[in-house]
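#structure-requests
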Amino acid sequence: MERIMIYPYSKAYEPYVWYERLLGNREITALVTPNGSGLVGRKVCSGRKELTVSNDYEAQLEQCDGVWFVNDEKFELSEEAVEEKIHRAMDLGKKILCTRTSLPDSGRIADSIPPALHLLPRETERETGRLEADYCYPVDTPVLVVYGTECGTDKLAVQLALREALIDIGYRVTSISSRMDGRLYGMHPFPEYMLGPGCSEGDKIRQYNHYVKRIELAERPEIMIVGVPGGVLPYDRVDHNEYGILAYEMSFAVPCDAAVMCMSYSDGFDGDYSAFAQDMERIFRYHTVGCHIAAAVPDMQTVLDNRKRHLVSLDREFVEAKVKQYGKPDVFHVVNKQGARDCAQLIVDTLSK
């Protein structure tokens, strides 16, 4: 087994630890975070073991075979400091995977890594989104869309959980992530051009469609999981979720055969999400068949102070108990293994009709 360290670790990468079973002959053995992150000593469980978050990069580097350099979320590390750690790992002969989108000179850094030290084969052709035709191709494989009402609602975890559950059932699954850092887990990254100003909105729709179609033709899956970044609709003038524009563009690029909605926990929710599902059908043509309740709840003090929604974590066992109380066959806590199995079976039954 190849032993992998994640640096700089943050809670955004916790789902990757939970689903390290998807890594095959690799395992996550170290989580290293910068000083001052507030995460040192935190316990994180995978399906195989419990890891303790550390801030000792040098000690953990000695004990791993490769380092996965990830985005630092809110740590705001200097790129010089990160590049220094990359070269330190290379000096010790450790394999490198760098998915940091903030590195201004990532091409030069990648060129400096010897081929033998690439943790994954280097992408020789950067996705430029060149158009093969001025229209969208049909996607013949059933598409499962995973979307969220806002950020922080476990979309990545749900994509990983359903990928694992559907593979366990016996399906050939292709995943196109809502993030850019899932290659290690066999997921295709969300294309960078979708988030930039480099092309028109119409071109983005066609390019994303062509991206998905090329993957479909290459892999011939039996089901495709497509993750939608961010939230799908604005809450109000301040919490606008970029007005759902990205979800709107993606809905024209790729048809949705079934969708799973991810939402935060609310005391007032009784398990009935049909009104929201109807809106999703009308606006995005998302046929929502299931709902995941995340172990997160809005921090009302932040809302009052800043007028911006911010989610804080809840105990997952509490949320699992609440989901059972709803008694709804299409409402889950998918991060729970049984919840993932039940949701995957519902999806299979829906797509088989």
